[in-house]
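Dear colleague,

Following up on Tuesday's group meeting, I ran the structure prediction for the two-component complex that the binding team flagged. I've pasted the input sequences exactly as they went in, so you can double-check that nothing got truncated or mislabelled along the way. The structure tokens for the whole assembly follow below. Feel free to forward this to whoever is handling the docking comparison.

Inputs:
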Amino acid sequence: MVALIRPTDWNWLLFGHLVAAFALVAGVIVVCLTSLAATRPGRPELATLLRSIGFRANLIVVIPAFIAIHILGGILADREFPGDSNEPGWLGTSFAITTVVTLVAVALAFFQYWTLRRARAGSLGGWPGQVAASVPLLVLASLVAVIVLMAGKPS
Amino acid sequence: MARGDVHASDCRPVPRLSFPAVSKYDWLLVLHLLAAFCFLSGSVVAGILHWLAMRRDRPSEIALLLGLVRPMVAVIGIGSIAALGFGIWLTQDSPDGVGLGDGWVIAAIVLWFVAGALGGPAGKQLRHARELAERRAADGDRPSETLHDAVADRRALVLNYASFAALVAILVLMVFKPGAG
């Protein structure tokens, strides 16, 4: 029910786009869970482990999935709505949000690396850790907004 | 053809909710898709955390990682039921004739039950492993072969992989709709 009437060969593109989207949301949830759990008071070596997992999940899953979504979504959009003038508002807005959030995810990776280095040096608290814990939640909220736009197609 | 075109060529009035630009069908699609994300992405998250736990030796680390799976169990449960419910509702309101009796819809519902039947026992084994890890963590936090075997239980792994394969098969059916006109 995700796609309605599309030529069969487009379905592979849509399937790839959706697989990337599911992987992206999963990766962002892992980053959220580990980043939030790392801010809880407890044993510092566990917080370092969690920050390391969050950083790697962002680097290995989230950022590549964002790139895959951009590429496959762009190809799909070009086929379904050829020419810039045909592009509906919900699609342009979704692309804009996704592009901004991709840049935020890249910036978050630098922040996570910094926070991880601080944690390994024994410094667990402070605003960098709070930022690294709260930004993934914003990324997740933005993704929910994009899913609503892509599925609801308000026009 | 985009769905907008399908609606434009459909002579029946399109029911609308409070957001004037979105039809009832599209709201149902939004909810169905959000639930599917909870179901599938939640399962991927649980799988990643389980995989990470298998690679650790210290019970406290294993307990921590498997403990993070707990909130995902609720997300997966709610997502799975909501995805099924909104999916069935969508077939009642489908503007392009998709019905509950279509082969690919029936196959998807069967696979939904298969995924649940396979994932349930695997989840119980994972809970047992987490509880064991918590006890070992409180009791000296030394690596244990019993705990390692419980986390990497072969039967649970096979069930988890089979359950995830069923979810991927549902996604394939949703996209390709074999047999649909």
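The helical segments of chain A are 8-38, 44-80, 89-120, 127-152.

Cheers,
M.
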